[in-house]
Amino acid sequence: MNTPACTSRPTCDCDSRFLLPVGLLATDDAPALSACLRCGTLHSPETLTPSASAWLARWPRLLATPDGDFACLPAAVRCTNLRELETIRAAAWNAQRHLPRGRRLNRAGWPATPPPASLPSSLSHYRLLWEAAAFTPATDLDTLLFWALPAHTLVSPLALNALIQRRDLRSLLHGLAYSPVLHRRTVLCALAHEDSSLVPLLRPHLQAWLNNHDRAPDSPQKRALSPEAELCRARLHLWQLTHTFAQPTPPPEAHATHEAPLSAAA
Question: What is the pTM of this model?
Answer without folding.
Answer: 0.76
